[in-house]
Amino acid sequence: MATNFPASLDAFTNPVSSDTLDNPPHDQQHADVNDAMEALQAKVGVDGSAVVTSLDYKLNAIGTWTSYTPTLTNFTATVDEASYCQINDVVFLRFISSSVPTVTGTMEVSAPVAAAGPSTPGATFGDAFAYDVTLSDTYRGLPYFATPTTIRIWVSPATSAQTWNATTPHTWAAGDDFRFHMVYRAA
Questions:
Q1: What confidence score (pLDDT) does residue 120 get?
Q2: 66-185 placed in CATH 3.40.50
Q3: Which residues of 81-116 are buried (b: 16+ CB within 10 A; e: fewer)?
């Protein structure tokens, strides 16, 4: 019998002390176990495996950060880092910019992986920070999904429904920076 693993588990016949070498056939018993062992080794993989379906490869890929190029809407910035790490359907995201010279409307950043759905401020885990170089002041915000692929920042603490824009949380100028990190569920 050829092995069924990894699609399904094999059912081996274990010989008992009263069985002769031909019941079950001794050579077939070895061939079946050898086939199953080869399939198991292929599934597990060798150390440092490059086979993307092997368990070794998948375990070593957990926690790997990947860079991406976000789309910035209604503002320009020098993006120092935009990266994410996805483990199953959980996405960890970080975005860092060192200069935001121009803001023309509600600031939006594209997500590397679509979210399970839009969210309300506070429904995702994360923080945003803005630094106003003119006043040497720092502002805090809450990242959220306006759409499954569009991230906005909510003013925090909020006295009204406001997102970061050209004049909120401050009037942006060259040298100001903007950063956020968040955790969310992928679609």
A1: 67
A2: no
A3: ebebbbeeeebbbebbbebbeebeebbbbbbbbbbe
* Domain ranges within the chain, ordered by starting residue: 1-61, 66-185
- Pairwise CA distance, residues 186 & 111, whole Å: 10
pLDDT on residue 56? 87
- The half-sphere exposure of 115 on its side-chain side, counting CA atoms within 13 A, is 23
Q: Does the predicted model carry a pTM greater than 0.85?
A: no
Residue 10 to residue 101: CA distance in whole angstroms: 64
Compute and round to an integer the Cα radius of gyration of the chain. Answer: 27
* 61 CB-near residues (< 8 Å, 6+ apart): none
Task: Enumerate residues 6+ apart whose C-beta is below 8 A from 104.
Answer: 74, 75, 166
CA 136 from centroid of its chain's CA atoms = 33
